Amino acid sequence: MCFHRLTLLLPGTSWCGRLGAAGSRKSPNGLQHLRRPTRSAWLVNVLARDSAAMRRLSTLGDELRDAQTGLDSTQLRTLSEQRRRLITDLLEQAQAHADRCRLCG
Question: How far apart are CA 13 and CA 8, in angstroms?
Fold first, then answer.
């Protein structure tokens, strides 16, 4: 199992147990000694797998940089509002995912 796929396992899931279930008795390269991501880092990993959201964030970042470089205050206000909405959207997705996985209590 690839490391990036392991980081998407629910927090608290045994990586070594998961590797054993995949047919490997020993963890390659000392994987069992790696720390598992915190719940918040795990949620970020899950959101980062959403390539459409990451493209939107990247594009918005480029547009914000261009507006700032060009000192376009109207465009900066518009893009800043888009950024607030996008971040709110992502936070709501993270909360919904955490609720589905019963991570928040």
Answer: 10
Judged by phi (left if over 0) then psi (alpha if -120 to 50, else beta), residue 13 lies in beta
Joined together, the tokens standing for residue 79 give 């893009």
- DSSP code of residue 72: -
Q: Which of 78, 6, 17 is nearest to 45 (CA)?
A: 6
CA distances from 34 to 3, 27, 44 (A): 10, 11, 18
pLDDT(8) > 70: no
- Categorise residue 29: left if φ over 0, alpha if ψ from -120 to 50, beta otherwise: left
pTM for this prediction: 0.61
